[in-house]
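Case study B.
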Amino acid sequence: MGDSVKPFLKVLAGEKTERPPIWLMRQAGRYLPEYRAIRSQANGFLDLCYTPKWAAEVTLQPIRRYGFDAAILFSDILVVPDALGQEVTFVEGEGPRLDPVTCSADVSSLSTTWVRQRLEPVFETIQLIKSDLSDDVALIGFSGAPWTVATYMVEGRGSRDFAAIKGWAYRDPEGFGSLIDILVEGTADYLCAQVEAGVDALQIFDTWAGVLPEPAFQAFVTDPTRRIVEKVRAQHPDIPIIGFPRGAGPAYPDYLKQTGVTALGLDTAVPIGWAADTLQTLAPVQGNLDPIHLLAAGDGLKAEVDRIVSGFANGPHIFNLGHGIIKETDPETVADLVSWVRYP
Ligand code: CP3
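Model:
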């Protein structure tokens, strides 16, 4: 079905391309005036995520504007706790709020039973996007990894020190493990349903992977991600999966080998020479421009693009940022970026 014409999928299959395909994390979002126009019609952020015609439209906006090689489903990692039965709200200008899950009794009030049913609007969105996407553009589905999603479920909001979740995980690894188990189960099912609705690849966002010491990283980042990859592959053996364990540093190689992900998303701090020698020889890599370089723009940005493209030129590479694009970004700078990545 024309998969061979999608450069993004070619690279995930291990091919090296003349110039890297490009998409950007958070490519749909508030830096785009056309996003803000749709967003202002919605009754809050989750209403936008759960209304298929709007979610499909904002997914496609950056594809129309820039011609990226991949679209990413417009949704959020926090729809999973919402579907498990922990209500999520987004406070304007502040971020997510949840009634914290802090003990085993709270975990037993969550259930994976209704995940597919409650997230039906997401699957409908995927079908709408697919019907509009051209043959050479891939569609990426995604979820958060259990650890990162759990940080919001336990802290009840974004955190600086992760004291509540780490306190629970270190004090009572078994009780906390039951929350991770539910997330593994619900997330694997959710990702399978996205594949069945038509996505071409998956990305697992572990934004807060980098805050854990080694044994906890193994238990709460690597192991749960490996279990999800196994469950998804048991149903869909050929689906490419990108793992993004942000901040994993020297743990990146073991994360790759042990989880079995197809490719690695590299955060901004990963040194390119090291990654080219140590990671890209084993798997395709994606990344890793500092999103703040888009604010600096101009010659500095051009030099960074050249450094990243040439540093990864000997193996399979997908150009991306090392973290999501921020809302202060000038849309014109993104157009410059795309042309500099494509035409040396
Ligand atoms: O990449 C894309 O374009 C697809 C959509 C997408 C969003 N969030 C849309 C969004 C994806 C892949 C995410 C992932 C996500 N969500 C992560 C992991 C990646 C990362 O950025 O670290 C995390 C940690 C979240 C949780 C989340 N969602 C927070 C903490 C916030 C509030 C902070 C903020 O930037 O406003 C959100 C809201 C959110 N998710 C917005 C968008 C476009 C902004 C909401 C708005 O329009 O009001």
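The domain at 3-342 is CATH 3.20.20.210 (TIM Barrel). The remaining cases will be described in the next quarterly update.
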